[in-house]
Amino acid sequence: MKCTVSWLKQFTSTEGFTPAQLADRLTMLGLEVDSVEELYPALDALITARVMTVDKHPNADKLSLCQVDTGSEQIQVVCGAPNVRAGMISALARPGVSLPDGTKIKKAKVRGIESAGMLCSARELGLSADHSGIMDLDQQLEPGLPLRKALQLADTVIEVDLTPNRPDCASVRGIAREISSFTGSALQPLVAKVTTLTGKDTGYSVTIEEPTLCPRYAARKLTGFQIGPSPLWMQQRLAAVGMRPINNLVDITNYVMLESGQPLHAFDFDTLKDHAIVVRRPRADEKELVTLDGSSRSLEADTLLICDAEKPVALAGVMGGLNSEITAKTTSVLLESACFDPLSIRRTARRLGLPSEASYRFERGVDPDLADKALQRAVDLMVELTGAQADPDGHDLYPGKKPLLAVPLRMGRLKTLLGMEIPQDEVIRLLSSIGFVLTQTSADQFEVLVPSFRVDIEREIDMVEEVARLIGFDTIPATQPLIRMASAAEDPMRRLCQDIGRNMTSQGFYEAINYSFVPTAHHDMCKLAMDDSRRKTIRLLNPLTDEQSVLRTLLLPGLLENIHRNNNFQRSDIRLYETGKIFLPKGKEELPQERMQLCAVLSGQRYPAAAPLYFAGQKSEFADIKGALLQLLWHLGYPVNQGSSVSLKVDSSAQQPYAMAGSCLAIHAGPTLLGCLGAVDQAVLKAFAIKQPVYFFEIDLEQLLSLPRREKQFTPLSRYPSTSRDISLLVPESFAAGDLLSGILAQNQKYVEAADIFDVYQGVPLSSGEKSVSLSITYRSLDSTLDDASVDKIHNKIVRALMQQFNARYREGFDA
Amino acid sequence: METQLRALQQEALDALEQTRDHASLESFRVTYLGRKGGRLTAILRQLGTASPEERPRLGQLANEIKTEIERCFDQRKEQFATGASGASSPMVDLSLPGRYVPFGSRHPISQVMDEICAIFEGLGFAVAEGPDVETDFYNFEALNLPQHHPARDMHDTFYVTDSILLRTHTSPMQARIMETQDPPLRYISPGKVYRRDSDITHTPMFHQVEGFLVDRDVSFADLKGVLTSFSQRMFERDLALRFRPSFFPFTEPSAEVDIACVICNGTGCRVCKQTGWLEILGSGLIDPAVLVQVGYDPDVYSGFAFGMGVERIAMLKYGIDDIRLYYENDLRFLSQF
Fold first, then answer.
1. What 3-state class would DSSP assign to A700?
2. What mean pLDDT, rounded, does chain A reach?
3. What ipTM was predicted for this assembly?
4. What's the whole-model pTM score?
5. How many other CB atoms sit within 10 Å of the CB of residue A554?
């Protein structure tokens, strides 16, 4: 809602307040001011000037050579306007001045003659569409005055960002009322006197068939007007608040709506069949109405219509019909000022996608007591500005008239809720300033009569809010609540995600956050089978784009997109992870299952962003993602080792379509599949336009969280030295060397502290198809220094068992 | 023997002078002071062969010499430790970059969200997260936003069905929690929210932290107190706070909260559009209609609620100027936090 300060002044004095101060006070009253803008700021640089002499331009027929008095000197200006004449006062732009459209005036030669400025038309100054000649101003004006001041154009537009609960402030007078609450100045009425309308002998009828949807309908007929442009001041006001001037009749209805908050509509009276107005719903055979904009609008059973004796002529409160539009031929109009049910108007406006200034106000609630006053204001303006004659009488049906609402206000409750004591007389003063009427009903309680324009106020809490905003939120103290202590239970999933974050970031991973909605194309890009359950998604009814049309069932695609994006910016060394939800549909009207997942991707150099001097050429590989996962699971309390519930294994039934065959391990907890890790399939990489290998793991965190965590438990430290033995075993090339480690640990021999693989070798002198795996086993006792003999004894036992179990041979030169 | 001892003393002290680093110092120690084959030890072992009258004097002398050599040795060792000896280790180019295994970091949104939660947890608030896909009932109706309420225009909603949607705020947790628990209650609810809006200042998904407190006699002054404490902790400065009347269907009185611009300290700049203020959260006393809906007596209980956009706070805290950066996951962005 925009209004100008001069317009506000019409209703209340703003003396003592600059526009910026008014804006600040309004904001602090809950009417947030979005902008405060000076009108016609460019016109400050222009001045009034008197044309002293006019001579013909020696080199051009249509140009004149003028001597112009600027108040301080005489200058020569070339002018092409037909209306220039000696003695006139006009608007002068000197060199260096910018016109409202941005044109900068320069000293120039026009057809060989020097011109030290430009005399301007109203259009050039952005004042109106008139470009027939230069401005012909009041002869009484002195030359040399700043134009904005001389023309009394100095004004400021204040734009208020209205909250939906304050339709009363969708009007200049409504905002003026709020201003009067802090200035103490009186609020002027919209009109001095309202003609009582009886509806007798008007020559037309008004009938309300739907009194609940139309609590009030007032109308007045006018004739004898001259349709033409509105006076300049009205055009300027309308333009200043963003409304395009059309003609005097239309402009007046808009002007009064902006001023009062009451939407008005004018019908061509002679198009109304039987000169009747009926407010009703559509008949069974009435399916559509062509509105003013030429579009055909479908009607539904609950669409409220304004009709004549036989047909609809307007969508009530939304838009008029083309069949009753005012045209150049119109000789009499019926002016409507009515009140409609907010919900009904909102439904129609929404259904038809037809938001208008009128529907905006009706949807939020127009004061039913306003209809007659606004009608009077419009009639007065039409009589004054268009030469119209108004019928002495008119109609004013008010079936929905209700007594004013009375709301209790307990001083005790007010004090409790605001946390401060406000004296009773202060409460009375504040509320009275914007039209509330208070009656004391007991020592501690008032009854507040709510003015009809405050459709938002129904309850005591609404009055508490009024008092709070009028006294100013800044006067309310800041205190700390007194509340019983309680130790809140922690959300285990939140905790888990934080632990994951700490662990992954310390392993060099950055956290990513991707949108929950994704394109369905991701499913094909990830090679999901047609019957893959992850193709069943939650689909949005109204997505912004196809790229964001379904909720994700996988985290990996988002991270692959992130890799692609980073590659585009020459970042190829990437470690990213995301913890986020996937969404799995359940029943049609059921909320989906939301499952928290973790996905991590790794690509490029092993140590991204580390000094290449030390780490160059170390490409990440499968072992890196496996190590990251093991490290994570270990620190989260789900270690993957002998005797723990979590294990990694090759499991063809868990092979993911987006993982490279042969490079995918399933993460199991007993029979439950927790997730997987592996290399991303080549075709999937190609689909995401990634040209480098990517390794990933994904884990269902809901499953993980349901597993028992390993409790932290202290193991006593041995005070004795350890000793180790190495061994190299020859095994077939395809043998899973890691099984040797688990084989060692599975034997559960005493003193075994650790077992490690330190080398895997293939090639000369080994025969092809064979590889050598070198292992180191560390032994330590808790209660003595182990002697060589007892270590050798255990070690040989272990090695023999290994060789037997895995059919392995000693590699020569490495005999234990 | 005395001569032998004196000579050894001289020789040892000379040798000590010649030591240049820890290694040569160590070999000195083994040669002269070593317990197994050290030369001083060897001489001391011969003490037994001296005459009984000489033995005490020679013993005392040997000990004095030993103490003296040990003292000089310690001194020399100390010199090496502090680098005062003029000795140098093999050439190291100290200007080369350090070697480290790089860390990653959490997303700035997560960092800020955790920080917000931690501040409220410190005030005794519990954290509860709700579903992203919500019913119309919890997202709107239970919060005093019935069908066709004009205030629904403030939320551009993504719908899944007529009655299921992507939550437009994290406020549904208010109703979900109050439905099953009795006051006193103190909760915050962080999470993703969705609105059908995408431009330079809006992404269709963003993050909110919603909080509420319900008890007997909770006042607007309490709301101001708690949010003031929060802002001081969050921005690590005593920035002025401004509570400005506004409208939310689920609170009354409702207030938008502005902080003095973190960039210009309230003097006016481009970020705060010359107003000196930045809007950081919406808040208010919980509307009695919401309390009644969950079966609380609004004459007995009252409470406040607030909600803030995490992206916005992170933007202010870190000076981020484009909201879309959050979801591109560009490492050049992520690695700044």
1. strand
2. 92
3. 0.86
4. 0.83
5. 21
